[in-house]
Amino acid sequence: MASSAAGQTGAPASGARRAHPEHSHRRLRERVAATHWRQRLAARRPLDHGYRLVVGAVGGLVVAFGLVTIPLPGPGWLTVIAGLFLLATEFTWAERLLDFTRRHVRAWTDWLGRQRVWVRAAVALATAAFVYGVLVVVLHVMGVPDWVPGWVPLWR
């Protein structure tokens, strides 16, 4: 029975579809569109356009905030990815960009995981030095806030 099902679809029984995960599951946009509440919104054209406009505006703001905060300590990239995820619920281009980002982040982490400990330590130190440098420049340009402990205000 299983061989006849594989023969009907024309797909090889060896599991070649697993090589392309986009074929093995529905896209995020399709899963959201299949929900009851989203179908009810889609049935009313003005509400549907308004909803897409709000999702685009909020997602764009989240992505913009994330891009601004990337060099600062904190979850800058995570915020960008969260904004892309929000946009991908309604827009194909954002879903493609999110897939691109997932592939490249996975490739980077896989590559870094295969490296020797000293390479991983060097990458961690370079990242920490970059974040520290950005923090020093931001504090120098914007000034040190009053709530910061006394040992920090080097530029007052």
Question: TL;DR?
Answer:
The protein is mainly alpha-helical and 156 residues long. It has helices at 2-9, 21-24, 28-33, 36-43, 45-69, 76-88, 92-114, 117-142.
Structure description:
With 156 residues, this protein is mainly α. It has 2 domains: 24-114, no CATH class; 116-156, no CATH class. Helix content is 72%, strand content 0%. It contains 8 helices and no strands. It has helices at 2-9, 21-24, 28-33, 36-43, 45-69, 76-88, 92-114, 117-142.
Topology of this structure?
Elements: H1 2-9, H2 21-24, H3 28-33, H4 36-43, H5 45-69, H6 76-88, H7 92-114, H8 117-142
Helix pairs in contact: 5-6, 6-7
Key structural traits:
156 residues, disordered N terminus, 2 domains, flat, mainly alpha
What would you call the structural class? Answer: mainly alpha
Distance between the termini: 78 Å
Individual helix count: 8
Poorly predicted runs: 1-20
- Helix and strand sequence: HHHHHHHH
Radius of gyration, Cα only, in angstroms? 23 Å
The percentage helix is: over 70%
Shape: flat
Largest sheet: none
What's the total number of strands?
Answer: 0
